[in-house]
Amino acid sequence: MRERFADTDSFSRIRPKGASRRGRRSDRFDDSQPEYDYFAPAGFEAGGHDSTDGYDHDHDHEDTDQEFLAPVTDGPAVGDRWSTWDQSTPTEKGPEPRPDWVVTELAAVDTELGIVKTGKEADVFLLERAVPDTGRRTLMAAKRYRDAQHRMFHRDSGYLEGRQHKESRVSRAMAKRTAFGKEAIAGQWAAAEFTALCRLWSAGVAVPYPVQITGTEILMEFVGDEDGTAAPRLAQLRTEEADIDDLWAQLGRSLALLAYDGYAHGDLSAYNILVHRGRLVIIDVPQIVDVVANPRGLSFLERDVRNVGAWFVSRGLPPASVEALVESLAADARLRR
What we know:
By secondary structure, the chain is of the alpha+beta class. Helix content is 27%, strand content 18%. A hairpin with a 6-residue loop joins strand 7 and strand 8 (137-145).
């Protein structure tokens, strides 16, 4: 399975994993010290006797008091870890009804197949969640926000206006950009993105379905093919491959739903929109802006449309269509009367 994905092209080229397996539970233990389990595997009775082959093994071992010791690893026999589905609370799982492809069985195994995309704040990995010996499997994108020492949250200054933490002391620390405040800001991004994805998906916006969040890892719908080929970004499409009018109409519908709900993407461009078999999908939404609470809300909304609109105009869309969408979204967000 892993070899199939090793040379797959995606946002950037998907690279196979190295020796380090991020997110693997066994990383928390010293692998040089073997562990043993006194539970016998299926088909064995206590003492290591195979109860299914019909032979009497009473004389095979002179010391009948010796237990069968099976070495135990922290992870499953195949894959990097057991499914983390049971580690998320109900509010940390995607909205219902869930798509049929979501694998919720606790016997499932998560296998990391490569890296899809690297970024300043987070990296995206290709993950397979499958139930061994069955046909139940799905591919997901695992977005992992970096720890506090390696994050580069260069975009937070304007986006956090209008956001409040439930504890006033944390809000003050964030506003003053103290060391504690910066830590709090960094810790908000994964939760903010997951919450935004849940809200937008439920509202009908074209975003990846959010499966679950555990800590700073978000598992979401993998937008791409079954062989692990990720959908290209809008910026990567050649003009002859794109139905400009249809894609613009799809974008307008999603942005209208966002605006009507009082939000703007906040950092929209042709680089965080995917196109898979003609379907447009908006990604990278941790900085979603409340255009009513944020005093710069209208400027964020206008900038979103004009940034991505420039790509469409360069491929034949009339410039007037961009300005018309700006006015329509401002009205949908009730920012203009």
